[in-house]
Amino acid sequence: MNTLVWIVLSTFVVSLISFIGVFTLVLNEKFLDKIVFILVALSAGALMGSAFLDLIPESLDKAVLNPFLLVLIGFSVFFLLGKVLHWHQHSHQEKRQKHVKPVVYLNLIGDGVHNFIDGVILAASFVSSIHLGMVAAVAIVIHEIPQELGDFGVLVYGGLSKARALFLNFISALLAIAGGIIGYFLATTIGSFVSVLVPIAAGGFIYIAASDLIPELRKEERLGSALRNFIIFLLGIALMYGVQFIPGAA
Asked: Is the separation of the CB atoms in 51 and 241 below 8 Å?
């Protein structure tokens, strides 16, 4: 099978992981409301873990520009985007049926960039060898499960319906295919291409987790629930740490 076909098929399979939230469609709204903070905590931990344990170390290995400067640029860009979205929301006060929080759009953008990078990484792996590409695909699928589940929780918490959250999460996930195709045709310059995008994505992840998700978790006043959310947050970090030990995940 042609290398490009392998890349497209593998990135499509990775994109399907975004539908993991479909399992919540059978849950009633009351129960979903109870677990949505758990999903937000999982997402916050997964984003932090992914940024500090995966993306930033990877950018240090392939640095073309100062990776910490690029992390700050990514953080600043998402900070600016958040302010623009907040301003736009409050300057258009038409009565909407459901109030959608800016974190929804920031999360979709950040996850889209991350999915695009995953596609580029898959392309680089398959160009090296089909075996390495398949190993990388398995590693990325395992890596994506907790993060996509957390992302779905953030979108629902941010004001989207379950069906719309699933649809937009899938659209964001499809950027992996675009990343795979572009990565295939840029195989000769893929190292410098990834080295710039990866730390920028890390900065975006840190901003979303630290500025939007963790402050929401801090609103929980009941000690038991707050401790539960903190443990789930740590679990999200631990899952991202565990991925490092999967062959081909690095």
From this structure: no
